[in-house]
Amino acid sequence: MTLLALSFTLLFVLATMFISVWQKLGLEKDIAIGTIRSAIQLLVIGYVLHYIFQTEKAIFLLMIVSLMIIVASWNAAKRGPGMKGIIWRIALSILTTELLMMGILLGLNIIEPTPQYIIPLSGMTIGNAMVVAGLFVNQLRREVQASKGEIEVLLTLGATAAQALQDVRKRVVKFSMIPTIDSMKTVGLVQLPGMMTGMIIAGADPIEAVRYQILIVFAFTGSAAITSMLLSVLSYRLLFTKELQLKPIQDSK
User: Fold this and answer.
1) Within a domain: residue 249?
2) Domain extent at residue 164
């Protein structure tokens, strides 16, 4: 794709900004900032990956994966204002998910141990875990607020924090996995995912592209389940004081 052809894709952004102004949605500033940021970030990471793929040094691989986890954790943690310590719990959940996914993929020789495979697959796994973590934290706060009376009654009757939040945690885990499960059900019928589409456009055999996409779908499902379940175990205690009283729920920004 030439730079001229790429520049024409800005027409989509301009059309969206025009609709925002026309309908007085007030989204044009955010769209403009998002467009500039995404373009710069993608260009920078493109050059960084080009260098890493050429050098193939493990230290650079570890650095970029670590950066992915830090940024993902910070972004997901914004969904839980007032939950002190939630960021490192999210980071631990995402890190565990990443280690398990890469351990299986590399340990069973499903993928080659090169940056060309590890970085893209890590990015997709971490990104999916970030979305699940953000949904989990946000929904946990909502469910606790909605079930506050029920939870306080259970605590009064002598229930522990884990027992009082047992049903809430189950509902939140299920909610956080809805996008992943829905995507599994419709993949190939409603949507042709990015990795598969990219490989086909690049000239790869569609069957080979489908195999890699199946790998991604299964990895996404596993990462979603592991992330949400770990967060369920690690984060619920943050909603209580030392005296097992519910803390006030702050509004998200």
Assistant:
1) no
2) 58-239
For the segment 164-171, the average pLDDT, to the nearest whole number, is 90
pLDDT of residue 193: 66
29-61: buried (b, 16+ CB within 10 Å) or exposed (e) per residue? eebeeebeeeeeeeeeeeeebeebeeeeeeebb
Contacts of 179 (CB under 8 A, 6+ apart): 131, 135
The answer to whether position 78 is within a domain reads: yes
In tens, the pLDDT along 214-249 reads 888 888 888 889 999 999 999 888 888 887 788 877
Compute the distance between CA of residue 239 and CA of residue 186 in angstroms, rounded to an integer.
36
Same domain assignment for residues 81 and 44:
no
In a domain, 157, yes or no: yes
Distance of alpha carbon 66 from the chain centroid: 15
- Global confidence as pTM: 0.81
Classify residue 238 by its DSSP letter.
G
pLDDT in tens, 180-195: 888 888 776 666 666 6
At 191 the pLDDT is 64
Same domain, 137 and 33: no
Cα separations in angstroms, 137 against 64, 103, 120, 198: 25, 27, 26, 32
Quick check: is 250 in a domain? no
Same domain, 24 and 124: no
